[in-house]
Amino acid sequence: MKRKIFAASILAFLFENNMKAQDNTSTDSSAYKKQKLKIEEVNFISSYYSQDGNNSAVTGGQGTEKLTDLATTFEIKVSKRDKNNHKHNFGFEIGIDSYTSASSDKIDPNTVSSASYKDVRVYPSINYSFENEEKNFILNGGLSFSAEFDYTSIGGNFGFTKISKDKNREFSAKAMAFFDTWKVILPIELRNTPSDNDANHGDTKPRTSYNLGLTLSQVINKDFQMAFMTDLGYQQGLLATKFNRVYFNDALDIVNATVKSEKLPDTRFKVPVGVRANYFLGDNIVLRSFYRYYWDNWGINSHTFSFEPSYKLSAFSSISIPYRFYTQSAADYFQPIFLHGLEEEYYTSDYDLSKFSSHMIGLGYKITDADKGIFHIKRINSLELRYGFYSRDNGLDSHIVTLALRFK
């Protein structure tokens, strides 16, 4: 149920490029001894997110968008080597989100206890990878599950990575599939009227999503690295959010205007392409940059620019100032409240599909100490704290604070 902006904000401020030391000591298979699983690392990430605005899709494109979310993720990574010295990695992760949404409570304005006003999402996953360091390739796969009141999702992925002999070039491909089920929730006033499409209140509807991600990374020299990527996506099924209202242009007030549930095509094709570049400016400064172009067959074109300078304060700590600019065109099916015509086949007043620009700026601090540990607790290897402020030109603002701890 959560706004898509929440997911975008979280992804923009996740923690990347954690380098893991590996034991490359060769093993004589004739003297092989069965090895136990070794704990590589344990990660704990918690974030608090809040937003507010005045373009709620639940109430037809106007009204409160106030939302809060507390998200916590716990991950453990373990590994073992076989008799051929191949490395087997296992990852186990569970996440829990708890959120409140004032706009979702307007599904039924006569109560303050509608199904989505307050909800919890649980999303466990397991992952496995096989590393052949002699032939420089990695195979990986995983399964995921996500559930909340009106939505469940089962996902699977499979990937392949090939590394060049000199370790300067890497190509990876990852295929993902998600099989979702929605419980249809209509606005209260539309539940006992003939539906304008084949989604009735209380129905369960499927949605499937397929993604293919391709990445080519190259070390140009000791100071400069680049990566080129794409993540093709295709969706089919119920893609509209059925509790979102649309008010039509036959009147200019919500009492007299015709109201229907949001209706969108049942397929969507997405094509994003991006490039990432990291430059090490001396011993203390790292400049990270990213650009992405996105196109889909709903009519949205977007551009994302991000830049993050990091400064090393000491041998163990650094600060960073991430910034991101995003702009997109409107989907073909979007119109503000009271502007849709009754003759239109598809319609939405969800401002996530409108034309807008946004800025996000933040501040990050990271400290790592593998010898003494953080707070003199040897097991805590790394601590990172980040803050981000996000602002759209249509009035939506949000804040996010994220804490990440890594245990070794």
Layout: helices, strands, pairs:
Blueprint lengths: L3 H9 L25 E15 L14 E15 L5 E15 L16 E15 L4 E12 L2 E13 L5 E15 L20 E18 L2 E14 L7 E3 L11 E3 L5 E15 L3 E12 L4 E12 L4 E4 L2 E6 L27 E13 L11 E13 L4 E11 L1
Antiparallel strand pairs: 1-2, 1-19, 2-3, 3-4, 4-5, 5-6, 6-7, 7-8, 8-9, 9-12, 10-11, 12-13, 13-14, 14-15, 14-16, 15-17, 16-17, 17-18, 18-19
Major sheet: 17 strands, antiparallel
- Structural category: mainly beta
Spatial gap, N to C terminus: 35 Å
CATH fold-type name: Porin
Tell me the number of strands: 19
The CATH level-2 architecture is identified as Beta Barrel
Q: Give the count of helical stretches.
A: 1
Whole-number total of structural domains: 1
The best one-word shape is globular
CATH class reads Mainly Beta
Can you offer a commentary on this structure?
The chain has one domain (4-13, 45-407): Porin (Beta Barrel). The chain is globular and about 70 Å long. The chain is mostly beta strands and 408 residues long. β12 (267-281) and β13 form a beta hairpin. It is built from 1 helix and 19 strands. 2% of the residues lie in helices and 55% in strands. Mean pLDDT is 89; it is low at 1-30 and 112-116.
Short description:
With 408 residues, the chain is mostly beta strands. The protein has one helix and 19 strands. The strands form two sheets. The protein has a 17-stranded antiparallel beta sheet that branches.
